[in-house]
Amino acid sequence: MAEEPIEEEARRVFEALDGAEAMADPLARARVIGRLLRDQAERNKRFMEYRRQVVLDLRAQTPPMPYRRIAAELGVSLGTVQDIERGATKWSRRPKAEEGESL
Q1: CA gyration radius, the chain
Q2: What is the pTM of this model?
Q3: Is the alpha carbon torsion for 34, 50, 83, 75 positive or negative?
Q4: Which pLDDT tens digit goes with each residue over 2-46?
C-alpha cells in the first residue's frame, strides 16, 4: 500500500520528537528543543512551499483537480486548500465576502 511507508516515516519522526520531550535531563532537553525549534522554523517555510506547489500542479492539470478532491487527498479542509493555493499562511486572513456575495 502506498501510504504505509509514509505513515511509517511519520511515526518515526514523532517518536524521535517524543524522545526529545521525554529526556530526563532538563538542560539537555531544553537544548534539544531549542535546536528543534530553530530548525523547524526554516523547515516549515520549505514544507509549506512544497505543499503549495503540489496544489498548484494539481490545479494546473487539464481539467483541474477539484478543490474538494485535493482537500481529501491532503487531509485538510476545502478552505485550507484555497488558502494554500493563494499562498496564504497560518497568520494571514481570508478576504471577507462582500455583502450579498455568496461563498
Answers
A1: 18
A2: 0.68
A3: negative
A4: 557 788 999 999 999 999 999 999 999 999 999 999 999 999 999
